Amino acid sequence: MPLGTLDRNPPPLFREGPSALTKLAFCAALAVFLMVADARFGITAPARSGLALVLHPLQRMLLAPVDAWEQAGDYARGMERATEAENQARRQLAEQAVVLSRAAQLQAENQRLRALLDLREALPVKSLAAEVLYEAADPFSRRIVIDRGSHRGVRLGAPVVNDSGVLGQVTRVYPLSAEVTLLTDREATIPVLNTRTQQRGVAYGGERGVMELRFIAANADIKPGDALATSGLDGVYPPGLPVAKVAEVERRGDTSFARVGLAPVAQPDSARHVLVLEPLLGQEAAREEAAAEAASAATTAEGNRKGGKSGRSSRAAANVDEAASAPAAAQKGASR
């Protein structure tokens, strides 16, 4: 091939175009034009809106993992806060339940104490307030222990009552406590009076927390619902205290006595505060001592009054003698 036929033009890869400076100037001018045109005429707003519309699904797809992670974190934190709030609410509910039960207990105790105060004001005998500590462990007897003993003036045989009626009698006294035998004990007895018919009798303790009225004639005027109160004949219980109500009356032809079941008005299982009364015999002895002291005081005062009168009379006689002897002494002095 002859040399004149060879193509001496450079290949397209090595072709030279506009210079870099020219390209920079063109791009800068184009950018300035586009900025000015966008600022003045907003020609790029439709293009931007279309591009945003096209890229929105892609953006949401790319943000889905991030949103899922944040939602999972919010769910976990929400569950933790909800669990903590629930635990706190449960604790508050438990505390409020304790406070509510305590308030109900205090209200009931306040009512019982008010009833005891009214009862103490109504009773014409000395009384001492006490609290039930516990029930005696003997399974064959019905006894309770109170927190008052001989140091507080509790006497053996003192009646014990609550706001409903008679509970029992003090059978053992210790320095700081005392043991009370309830009326429902098998060995307990108390003289009673039927408030409707004024018939006297003796109530005995029985089994399973009940009492019975023994030695009542089969034709006696007694019926269920009759109220029985203390008669005061034993010298221990003050008269008129509620004891029990007649629960049932069974009259049989094979015996001359009726079987009378009683329900005590004072329930020992619910008693928390009681009053320990002074026995009537102790009151009589105290009244006799007080009467003797009053009589001795009156005698002493009378003797003092008599002694004062005699002393005053002797002093008056001495004054008279002195007044009579004064003129004689004056005459003797004059004669001298």
UniProtKB/TrEMBL annotation:
Keyword annotations of the record: Cell shape
Compositionally biased intervals (Low complexity): 292-302, 311-336
Span of domain Rod shape-determining protein MreC beta-barrel core: 132-277
Transmembrane regions listed in the UniProt entry: none
Domain of life: Bacteria
Classification via InterPro entries: Cell/Rod_1, Cell/Rod_MreC_2, MreC, MreC_beta-barrel_core
Name listed for the protein in its UniProt record: Cell shape-determining protein MreC
Highest classification ranks of the organism: Bacteria, Pseudomonadati, Pseudomonadota, Betaproteobacteria, Burkholderiales
